[in-house]
Amino acid sequence: SQTIHQWPATLVQPVGSPLSLECTVEGTSNPNLYWYRQAAGRGLQLLFYSVGIGQISSEVPQNLSASRPQDRQFILSSKKLLLSDSGFYLCAWSVKADGSPLHFGNGTRLTVT
Amino acid sequence: SQQGEEDPQALSIQEGENATMNCSYKTSINNLQWYRQNSGRGLVHLILIRSNEREKHSGRLRVTLDTSKKSSSLLITASRAADTASYFCATWDSSYKLIFGSGTRLLVRP
User: Fold this and answer.
1) Which pLDDT score, from 0 to 100, does residue B1 have?
2) Across the strands, what pairs with A63?
3) DSSP letter (8 states) at residue B82
4) Among A83, B11, B42, B62, which residue's Cβ finds the most Cβ atoms within 10 Å?
5) Is A7 an interface residue toward B (CB < 8 Å)?
6) What is the rounded end-to-end Cα distance, in angstroms, of chain B?
7) Pairing of strands A3-7, A19-26
């Protein structure tokens, strides 16, 4: 069966520090991968999605970047965090079929202080 | 802008009552999905309804879709305290982007 791992679960980082959040998927090949951010009590904002290794689409211009160095690995990064980067970051995957449901990790709670 | 918008934003009901949440969307769709999120966790896919379907059931869940009104509803029957969560509708903006509404926070009081 397929599983998705996202870590760390919580992270407290000072303003100006770098960030690296990692997400890996097991039990499937060539998935679509996604990074979403959720502000407290709000809906989900799509940040990045990837349809293959090295292929990243950015939805919102911001202080973050994403990379997909391997088929089932998706990394969210920042060189210098801002206070506004605080939030709940969710990784998800789907199969390559139109309209497929997304499968989410348990998220990373990032607090920038 | 959000593709889907849920209504109400928050709902508080007694255990055993039915809970109805509504979702409106803006563009044509192939399908609409509903997800559930427990506090501090990832989202879990509940049910998918295709554009050529009007109603779909899964256990205590009933989803309807009215493409002429660009709206959908999620009904949870005989609610339980464990149903307390946020519920989101989502539609595909393109083949690769699933856009979520802002969600309905459901509280089921025991």
Assistant:
1) 37
2) none
3) G
4) B42
5) no
6) 36
7) antiparallel
